C-alpha cells in the first residue's frame, strides 16, 4: 500500500497506530522539542482501524514537554508470572500480523504502555523490569500488591479493597525530587483497566500530576452480545452488510471459505486483538459471540475448539466468552448419538439437565472461564419451554440448574411477544415474566428464577426504537436478577449510513426515574433505571449490562467511523452509567480525531450530541414507533400493512386516522400504563401530563391538539421532521468545514456517508409527512 502523505504546518498529527517509531516522520521533519514550529506529516491513508487507541503524538508542544518529563519509564514487575490459561497449542497470529498474542494480563498492560506512550510522546520509553534501589523519576508502575514491590510499598490493602476485582487506583507519588505514578489493582485486570485510564489522560490532554484516582465499575458483568450473522452493518463489502473473500462480514472467522479459508480460528487476526484491546480499554468483561437466533454448530466439537482459541486470544484482556444457544439443541441429530427425545425435553427432566451439563462441561474443559449461555426462547420462531408445556421460569431454571455446579450463568432474554397474551405487543413480556417474579416459593421467599439466572431485557417494551419509554419491567422484577440490553449496532438508528451517537439515548434511559416503590408502597430512595441495573435500588448482588455490538470485518471495524463512538460510549456507560454523554463524546473525539479545540467543539457539539435527537425527529418524532419498511429496518414505510403478523406492521403502531395519530395505551386503550409504578402510570396515562416526546406511545393524539410550543400537534409533528433534517444538513456543513483538520481518507469516507444520510433523512421526512397528510388533510407549514 502506498501512503499518500500531506505536509502541514503547525499541527502535529502523525500516523502513530504503530506506536514507538511511528512518529519518526514527525521527528524527521523537525527536531525533538521543537515539534510545533516544524512541518509535520499526517497519514492521509489512515483507515480508522486502530479505533480510539491510535496514540498519535501530543500536538501541544508545551504539554508534550511536560509529559515527557512526567513519564520516562515503564515498570511492570513480574509481568510474566501470572500467565493466563491457554488451551490451544497451535494458537497463532495470521502471517503478516502487526498485533501480538499476549501471555499475561500484566504483559498486555506493559505492551499497551510501550505502544501508547511511544506514540503519544513520540519517542521510545524505557522499560524496566523492576525499580532497583530507587524508583526513577517519571516511572509509571503498574501492578497488584502480589506482583509489585512498589505497589506493596505505596498502596495499603485497605485502600485497594474498596475498588473490588475490576477497579484501580492511580496515584501521583514522590520520593525526594523524584516523582512517579503508581497504577494499582487488586487483580491484574484491574491494573490493566487503570493502565488504559492513564493512557486516556494523555490521549485527551489531561494533567498527569497530583493524581489520586479511585475507580470501580458500578455493574459487575459488562458484556457484548455479538449477533455474528445478523444486523451486521460493518462488513467489508460495499453495502457494509457482508464480507469479501469468503468471509461473512463478521469480526471473527469461524467458517470463512475461499481466499479467507486459511484465516479461520485458531488463526488470530489483528482485528481480534484491536477489538480486544478496545473492549478492555472501556472495561468490557465478556462477549457472547454468536447470534441469539442461534446455530447449533457453535456447540459442536469443531466449533468449541475454535471458540477455545478465541477465548485464549482474548483472555489476557479480561474478556470471557459466552454462547447463544438454541433451547431445543438437544434434539438436533447433529449431536447424535447424544440426543434427547421430545419427551425428555421437559426442563425438569434429569436427562434435559444432564445434556446441558455435558455441553457446558465440554465448553469448560476448553474454556475454563466460560460465562454461560444467552437464550432467546419462544420468541420470533425460536423454540422454548412453552413448546413442551412449560413456562419461561421452568425453562430458565432447568438450564440454570444444569450449569450452576460449573459456576455458569443463564442470560434469559425477555424479548417475547406472543400475540395470545395480549393484543398490545408492548404488554406481553411483563405479563409473561411478572407473575414468575411475584410467585411465592415453598421456602417463604418470592420469585421463582434461580440466582444464576439473569433476565435480559431491552431498554424499552418494543424493540430498540430510537426513543421508547423504559421497559416496565425495570424495578418490577424485585426478586430476579435483571440485565439491561442496549443495541449498539444501529439496526433502527441509521445502520452504517447515518451518524447517530447513541450515548445520550442510553443516558436518558439509565437516568429515567422508575418511581419504583417497596412492598409498602413507599418510593425507593434509589430508583433510576441505572440504580435498578447496578443493584442499588433493590439490593441485588449480581448485576449485568449488555450491548448488542457493532463490530465487523470492515477496515474501521464498525462500518461508519462515527459508529466507533457508540461502542466506546457503551463501555464507558456500562462501567459508570452516571457519566455525562457529552464528556464521553469529548474524550472519544480527542482520542479519535484529535485535540484541536475547533475539531472537538464542532464534532461534539454540532454533530454528535444532537445527532440522536435529530434522527428521532426525522424518523419517529413525538413517540411514534416502528415506522420502518419491512425487514430491513432502515427506510420509512408508514403505510405498510402487508406483513403476516399484525404487530410487525407500521400501521399497527401508527393507527393513523382522520382524528389523529398514535396508539392509545392509556386506561382508555390497552392500559400498558398500568404496568408502570403509580407515578409513571398516572403521568403516562394522561395526555396532559405525558412527556411530548413519548406522546404517541401512549395516546392517539388529535391533529389539532395544542402543544407546548403553541403549535397544534399536526404543525408540531411536521416541524419535527423538518428540524431533524436541518440538523443533518448542519452536520454535513460542519464536517465540510473541517476538511483541513482531518486526514483525507477518513474525512472523505465520513463526507460520503453524510451525503447519503442527508438524502435518506429527507426521504423519511417526505414519505412520512405526506402519508400523515392523507389523514390530517392539513397543510404542510414548515421551513425547508
Ligand atoms: C430485532 C431484530 C432481530 C433480532 C431480535 C432479537 O430485528 O434481528 O433477532 O431483535 O432481539 O430487533 O431477538
Quick structural summary:
With 784 residues, the chain is of the alpha/beta class. The chain has 3 domains: 57-215, Chitobiase/beta-hexosaminidase domain 2-like (Chitobiase, domain 2, 2-Layer Sandwich); 221-583, TIM Barrel (Alpha-Beta Barrel), CATH 3.20.20.80; 623-776, Alpha-Beta Complex (Alpha-d-glucuronidase, C-terminal Domain), CATH 3.90.1330.
Ligand types: beta-D-glucopyranuronic acid
Distance N terminus to C terminus? 44 Å
- CATH T-level topology of the largest domain: TIM Barrel
Low-confidence stretches: 1-39
Report the top-level CATH class of the largest domain. Answer: Alpha Beta
Largest sheet: 8 strands, parallel, barrel
What is the count of distinct domains? 3
What would CATH call the homologous superfamily of the largest domain?
A: Glycosidases
Assign the structural class, choosing from mainly alpha, mainly beta, alpha/beta, alpha+beta, or little secondary structure: alpha/beta
How much strand? Answer: 5-15%
Helical percent range?
25-40%
Tell me which CATH architecture of the largest domain applies here.
Alpha-Beta Barrel
Q: Estimate the global geometry from the Cα principal axes.
A: globular
Number of helices: 21
Biggest sheet: strands side by side, in what order? 10-12-13-14-15-16-17-18
| Rg, Å, rounded | 27 Å
pLDDT averaged over residues:
94
- Beta strand count: 20
Domain Alpha glucuronidase N-terminal: 52-197
GO molecular function, one term: hydrolase activity
Subunit structure: Homodimer.
Domain Glycosyl hydrolase family 67 C-terminal: 558-782
Amino acid at each position: 500500500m502506498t501512503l499518500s502523505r500531506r505536509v502541514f504546518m503547525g499541527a502535529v498529527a502523525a500516523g502513530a497506530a504503530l506506536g514507538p517509531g511511528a512518529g519518526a516522520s514527525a521527528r524527521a521533519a523537525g527536531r525533538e522539542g521543537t515539534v510545533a514550529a516544524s512541518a509535520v506529516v499526517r497519514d492521509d491513508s489512515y483507515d480508522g482501524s486502530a479505533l480510539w487507541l491510535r496514540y498519535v503524538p501530543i500536538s501541544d508542544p508545551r504539554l508534550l514537554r511536560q509529559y515527557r518529563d512526567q513519564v520516562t519509564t515503564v515498570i511492570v514487575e513480574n509481568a510474566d508470572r501470572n500467565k493466563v490459561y491457554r488451551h490451544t497449542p497451535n494458537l497463532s497470529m495470521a502471517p503478516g500480523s502487526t498485533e501480538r498474542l499476549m501471555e499475561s494480563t500484566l504483559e498486555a498492560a506493559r505492551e499497551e504502555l510501550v505502544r501508547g506512550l511511544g506514540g503519544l510522546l513520540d519517542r521510545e520509553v524505557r522499560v524496566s523490569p523492576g525499580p532497583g534501589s530507587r524508583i526513577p523519576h517519571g516511572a509509571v508502575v503498574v501492578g497488584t500488591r502480589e506482583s509489585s514491590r512498589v505497589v506493596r510499598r505505596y498502596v495499603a490493602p485497605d485502600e485497594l479493597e474498596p475498588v473490588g476485582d475490576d477497579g484501580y487506583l492511580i496515584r501521583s507519588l514522590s520520593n525526594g525530587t523524584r516523582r512517579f505514578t503508581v497504577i494499582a489493582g487488586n487483580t491484574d485486570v484491574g491494573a490493566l483497566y487503570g493502565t488504559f485510564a492513564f493512557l486516556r489522560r494523555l490521549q485527551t490532554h489531561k494533567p498527569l500530576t497530583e493524581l489520586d484516582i479511585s475507580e470501580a465499575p458500578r455493574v459487575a458483568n459488562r458484556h457484548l452480545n455479538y449477533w455474528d450473522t445478523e444486523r451486521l452493518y460493518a462488513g467489508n463489502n460495499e453495502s457494509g452488510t457482508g464480507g469479501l473473500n469468503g468471509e461473512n462480514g463478521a469480526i471473527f472467522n469461524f467458517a470463512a471459505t475461499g481466499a479467507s479459508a486459511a484465516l479461520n480460528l485458531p488463526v488470530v487476526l489483528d482485528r481480534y486483538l484491536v477489538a480486544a484491546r478496545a473492549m478492555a480499554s472501556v472495561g468490557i468483561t465478556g462477549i457472547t459471540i454468536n447470534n441469539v437466533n442461534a446455530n447449533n454448530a457453535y456447540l459442536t466439537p469443531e466449533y468449541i475448539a475454535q471458540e477455545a482459541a478465541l477465548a485464549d486470544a482474548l483472555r489476557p484482556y479480561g474478556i470471557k466468552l459466552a454462547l447463544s444457544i438454541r433451547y431445543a439443541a438437544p434434539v438436533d441429530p447433529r449431536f447424535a448419538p447424544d440426543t434427547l427425545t421430545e419427551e425428555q425435553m421437559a426442563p425438569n427432566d434429569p436427562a434435559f439437565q444432564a445434556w446441558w451439563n455435558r455441553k457446558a462441561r465440554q465448553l469448560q474443559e476448553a474454556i475454563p472461564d466460560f460465562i454461560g449461555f444467552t437464550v432467546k426462547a419462544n420468541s420470533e420462531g425460536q423454540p422454548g419451554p412453552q413448546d413442551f408445556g412449560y413456562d419461561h421460569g421452568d425453562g430458565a431454571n432447568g438450564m440454570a440448574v444444569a450449569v450452576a455446579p460449573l459456576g455458569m450463568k443463564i442470560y434469559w432474554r425477555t424479548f417475547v411477544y406472543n400475540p395470545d397474551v395480549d393484543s398490545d405487543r408492548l404488554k406481553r413480556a411483563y405479563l409473561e415474566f411478572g407473575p414468575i417474579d411475584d410467585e411465592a416459593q415453598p421456602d417463604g421467599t418470592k420469585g421463582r428464577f434461580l440466582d444464576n439466572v439473569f433476565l435480559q431485557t431491552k431498554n424499552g417494551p418494543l424493540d430498540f426504537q430510537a426513543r421508547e419509554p423504559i421497559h416496565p419491567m425495570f424495578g418490577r422484577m424485585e426478586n430476579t436478577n435483571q440485565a439491561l440490553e442496549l443495541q449498539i449496532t444501529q439496526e433502527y438508528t441509521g445502520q452504517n449510513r447515518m451518524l447517530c451517537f447513541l450515548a445520550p439515548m442510553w443516558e436518558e434511559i439509565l437516568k429515567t426515574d422508575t418511581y419504583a416503590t417497596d412492598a409498602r408502597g413507599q418510593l425507593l430512595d434509589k430508583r433510576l433505571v441505572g440504580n435498578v441495573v447496578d443493584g442499588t435500588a433493590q439490593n441485588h448482588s449480581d448485576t449485568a449490562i449488555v450491548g448488542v455490538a457493532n463490530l465487523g470485518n470492515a477496515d474501521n471495524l464498525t462500518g461508519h467511523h462515527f459508529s466507533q463512538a457508540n461502542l466506546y460510549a457503551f463501555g464507558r456507560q456500562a462501567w459508570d452509567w452516571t457519566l455525562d454523554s457529552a464528556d464521553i463524546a469529548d474524550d472519544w473525539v480527542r482520542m479519535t480525531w484529535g485535540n484541536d479545540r475547533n475539531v472537538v467543539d464542532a464534532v461534539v457539539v454540532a454533530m454528535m450530541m444532537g445527532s440522536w435527537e435529530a434522527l428521532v425527529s426525522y424518523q419517529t418524532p413525538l413517540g411514534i414507533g416502528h415506522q420502518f419498511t419491512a425487514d430491513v429496518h432502515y427506510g420509512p414505510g408508514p403505510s405498510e400493512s402487508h406483513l403476516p403478523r399484525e404487530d410487525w406492521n407500521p400501521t399497527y403502531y401508527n393507527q393513523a386516522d382522520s382524528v389523529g395519530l398514535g396508539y392509545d395505551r392509556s386506561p382508555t386503550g390497552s392500559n400498558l400504563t398500568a404496568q408502570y409504578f403509580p407515578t409513571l402510570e398516572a403521568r403516562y396515562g394522561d395526555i396532559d401530563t405525558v412527556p411530548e416526546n413519548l406522546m404517541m406511545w401512549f395516546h392517539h393524539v388529535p391533529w389539532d391538539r395544542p402543544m407546548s410550543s403553541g403549535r397544534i400537534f399536526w404543525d408540531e409533528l411536521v416541524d419535527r421532521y423538518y428540524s431533524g433534517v436541518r440538523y443533518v444538513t448542519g452536520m454535513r456543513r460542519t464536517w465540510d468545514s473541517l476538511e483541513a483538520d482531518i486526514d483525507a481518507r477518513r474525512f472523505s469516507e465520513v463526507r460520503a456517508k453524510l451525503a447519503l444520510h442527508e438524502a435518506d433523512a429527507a426521504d423519511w421526512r417526505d414519505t412520512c409527512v405526506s402519508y400523515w397528510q392523507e389523514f390530517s388533510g392539513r397543510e404542510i407549514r414548515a421551513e425547508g
